[in-house]
Amino acid sequence: MKRILGIGNALVDIMTLLEGDYILQEFNLPKGSMQLVDREKSEGIKSATRFFPRKLSSGGSAANTIHGLAMLGADTGFIGSIGRDETGDFFENDMKKAGVNTLLIRRNSVTGTAVALISADTERTFATHLGAAVELTASDLKPMLFEGYDILYLEGYLINDKQLVETACRFARENGMQIALDLASYNVVQAHLDSFKKIVKDYVDILFANEQESWEFTGLEPEKALPEMAKLCEIVILKTGAEGSWIKRGNETIRVSAFPVKCVDTTGAGDLYAAGFLYGLSMGSGLEFCGTIGSLMAGKVIEIVGARMDVEKFSEIITEIASLAGNK
Asked: Which of 27-31, 77-81, 189-193, 266-270 has the lowest mean pLDDT?
């Protein structure tokens, strides 16, 4: 099995069920987006929603993916930056409990939080205060951290520090690793399009995107965006929600159907799709089966609130993966 190393923003998610979208307007948060906010605004949103149903879990896009991989039994590591506080301890312990090799740098700043505001239609909007997470820099990365790993997984939110991303990719290349990148959010792609295109062209082997992100990246509808993105890297995965996903490598194009489920909360769907896909890849599976595992994982996580499934849920998934493999 291939070993997978993730790098991302180490955050604690505060999953909050909204009672109407007026909170989004009040705090000027575009529905469905990920907005970076300062500590004051973050505390204001938490205060305004303090009586709404909420659930805390360790999070961050790449951390969700790596946690999911570890729960499936993959050999994983995670690099991130957290505070010297109880919130940071919570993050680290949760990752370790899943079996992740935590490579965390402690800072004097507070650990970052992501308030996930979940609308009645299950769409989620993130107000993220990065805190200590944003203090991860290129100088924190050392070649030895990448040794023994086969795949590097990066979240697109890191593009705010292009030097960090380029340094990680360079060390990965020197270590003979494949590099996978998720484009993260349409507004992040919009703000950093040139940087994303350079990173993808120069380093990325596996690119994950959804419809909105692919539109911002190419200016094209999904059926035309897919081959356009495939010109830049080896494998492109385009997620189209309830319609499933498309995978393209060279002249090979594969459509994977979504699993029929009752959607409660879309948080983590893309992160867990990536976990399933990379798990299949780490096991040497073909692209269609990788996509099927990704679709299964995405379908399972949207049945719950938040991006972290429990041990029982993962036991079900592992059993279903084995069944699907046996029916191939």
From this structure: 266-270
C-beta separation of 92 from 112 below 8 A: no
Nearest to 289 by CA among 241, 263, 262, 327: 327
How far is it, in rounded angstroms, from Cα 279 to Cα 274? 8
Q: Look up residue 311 and give its amino acid.
A: V
User: What are the boundaries of each domain within the chain?
Assistant: 4-10+60-110+135-326
* Distance of alpha carbon 110 from alpha carbon 26, whole angstroms: 25
CA distances for 93 relative to 21, 97, 183, angstroms: 34, 6, 27
User: What integer pLDDT is reported at residue 248 of this predicted model?
Assistant: 97
For the residues of 197-222, what is the DSSP string, one character each? Answer: HHHHHHT-SEEEEEHHHHHHHHSS-H
- Identify the CATH class of 4-10+60-110+135-326: alpha beta
Cβ pair 203, 162 in contact under 8 A: no
**H or E element that contains 16:** strand 11-17
pTM of the model: 0.89
**Alpha-carbon gap, residue 117 to 264, rounded angstroms:** 13
